């Protein structure tokens, strides 16, 4: 059942975070639904601008609609990830998304507010909720590319003003994470001090962590042993998710880790089965491995086992 992120955040705030997982194809979608139902967790499906262009946005939307029928017990939101104004407006008009993210964080403060406000007005008129971003994460994710030297943490005072003036429903904050597989080069960690200050100024308001893949070293090592070259890849400590949730983070974006699972499964399979040309055996392996990965992440986020209480809250 598709719901808005607002409903999910009301259930989660201060207790746990909802996993927001990017998908691009059928195998990811099936593994995602299976993993969330196995762990009894509500979740958010994220569709990026790049995913909408990968084949045709209608194809990915149709796969999700089919999954909603196949897995009627699932409770989830469908979210546009890192949309520009044009893409947000298209997603709003489609009537399919329950949530959109407008990312104008690369603009100056006033321009970011103006763009976000326009998207909020259009979305709210359709009953769709809006995530916005303030501050800039470093790293690369599809069309979003920010040099680490230009990354900026979210200013707590600006965050309060931004939310009040835009009317957005949740805010993606920059607290030390970054996009991609190479998030940290040393002993950097999340800036919980900044997060705590933002929560003080925005009590009860849902916050979002982007760039939160943990880049498991076992996955990296297995990929490299199977012919990959991911030297130095390092991510966010997943054991810090629960502390972030206590400080108002209700949504944690995870994309890179899913790509690592996909890469590891395919590299190892074709290394061990060089004669194979059938895509279905490897697809089955990936779906099972991805489901296992999703269930594990939900345990770390604290969302595992929460589906019954969310269903009760929704009166379903």
UniProtKB/TrEMBL annotation:
Q: Name the Pfam families for this protein.
A: F_bP_aldolase
Q: Does the keyword Zinc apply?
A: yes
The UniProt note on the cofactor reads as follows: Binds 2 Zn(2+) ions per subunit. One is catalytic and the other provides a structural contribution.
Q: Which UniProt keywords apply?
A: Lyase, Metal-binding, Zinc
Entries under InterPro entries matching the protein = Aldolase_TIM, Class_II_FBP_aldolase, FBA_II
Entry binding sites for Zn(2+) 2: 103, 133
Q: What is this protein called?
A: Fructose-bisphosphate aldolase
* Source organism per UniProt: Anaerolinea thermophila (strain DSM 14523 / JCM 11388 / NBRC 100420 / UNI-1)
């Amino acid at each position: 059942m598709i719901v808005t992120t607002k409903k999910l955040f009301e259930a989660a705030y201060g207790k746990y975070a909802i996993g927001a997982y990017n998908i691009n194809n059928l195998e990811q979608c099936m593994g995602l639904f299976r993993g969330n139902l196995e762990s009894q967790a509500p979740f958010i499906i994220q569709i990026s601008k790049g995913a909408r262009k990968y084949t045709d946005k209608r194809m990915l939307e149709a796969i999700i609609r089919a999954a909603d029928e196949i897995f009627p017990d699932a409770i989830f939101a469908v979210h546009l990830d890192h949309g520009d104004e044009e893409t947000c407006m298209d997603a709003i008009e489609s009537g399919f998304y329950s949530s959109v993210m407008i990312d104008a964080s690369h603009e100056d403060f006033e321009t970011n507010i103006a763009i976000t406000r326009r998207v909020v007005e259009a979305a709210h008129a359709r009953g769709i909720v809006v995530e916005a971003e303030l501050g800039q994460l470093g790293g690369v994710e599809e069309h979003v590319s920010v040099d680490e030297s230009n990354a900026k943490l979210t200013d707590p005072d600006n965050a309060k003003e931004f939310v009040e003036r835009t009317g957005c429903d949740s805010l993606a904050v920059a607290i030390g994470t970054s996009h991609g597989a190479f998030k940290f080069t040393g002993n950097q960690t999340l800036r919980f001090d900044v997060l705590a200050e933002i929560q003080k100024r925005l009590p009860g308001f849902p916050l979002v962590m982007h760039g939160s893949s943990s880049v498991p070293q076992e996955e990296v090592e297995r990929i490299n042993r199977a012919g990959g070259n991911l030297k130095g890849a390092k991510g966010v400590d997943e054991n810090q998710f629960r502390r972030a949730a206590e400080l108002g983070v209700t949504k944690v974006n995870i994309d890179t880790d899913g790509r690592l699972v996909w890469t590891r499964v395919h590299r190892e399979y074709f290394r061990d089965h060089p004669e194979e040309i059938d895509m279905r055996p490897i697809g089955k392996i990936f779906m099972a491995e991805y489901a296992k990965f999703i269930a594990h992440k939900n345990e770390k986020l604290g969302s595992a086992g929460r589906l019954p209480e969310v269903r009760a809250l929704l009166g379903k």
